[in-house]
Amino acid sequence: PTISFTPTPSRTPSLSPTPTITRTFTQTRTPTSTITQTRTNTVPPTFTPTRTATLTRTPTLTRTPSNTPTITSTRTHTATPSATPTLGLGPQITFFGLARADGGVLTPNGTTPAGDPIYVRIPHPDFGGAFGFLIVGEARAGASGSPPGTNRLNNDPSNPSARPDLQIQVNRNLGNGSSAVCDKGSTDPEAPPPGGVPAINPPSFAGGSQMVADALNDFACRFDYNAAATLACTVSEFGNFRFASDRSTDQFCTEGPVDFGFRFPEGDTLVTVRWRDLSGVLGAEARLVVRVP
Description:
Blueprint: H1 25-52, H2 84-87, E1 92-100, E2 110-111, E3 117-120, E4 133-140, E5 166-170, H3 210-220, E6 223-226, E7 250-254, E8 267-275, E9 286-292
Parallel strand pairs: 3-9
Antiparallel strand pairs: 1-4, 2-3, 4-7, 5-8, 6-7, 8-9
């Protein structure tokens, strides 16, 4: 009977219910739910890339080059080269104006409707017309690249109609308006009195007129040529010799103050100038008005 008690250990198989723990495998089914999540992930990404394919519409941005025709507005800048003819291919006038007898550069008193500076000069009370000031022209090489010429009197006997490099004229007689060329007088007491400068009215450089050539030579011969700022006829506000413009490389200046021989008459006198370079190319014109009340 005591042996019969040993079966009681057989109750230990009652531990077999522990296999019920295998139910935990049902929890592994939850990873199957994760599989369903991966499916959800795979589906939208595949669709969204196809949506990115709609970005292929960006090639429609190539239509922006069609906007480039608006850049054709930049062609308006090509109008600026058309301004080069106004500068001329020859020497570019950097300054054209008046200075006092001591070289101080004068400020214009106004401008004409065309933009030309007006210099008002008070005449001497005992003499008609205005004198005692300097006429100054300065330049630099133009588009041709050749330096400004230095000839102030071209009296070539073989070519009477030859013109100087400095070509300056007035539309009203200066002084007595003598037609003689370069009759500016001399220190010789036996020499005839100085003559004036004949007018060219209306102002013109055109053609091969002998009268125009004579008038240009007659006026230009009364100027000095200055190739360096230290030799200039103009001075700074501190009294140092210098060109009137920092852009200038060459200067023409009347040999002295405008004198009785070619004084300016009462009223408005238009002075027109242009410069020729060493290669024979002419620059653009510059003008000013001398007004004598």
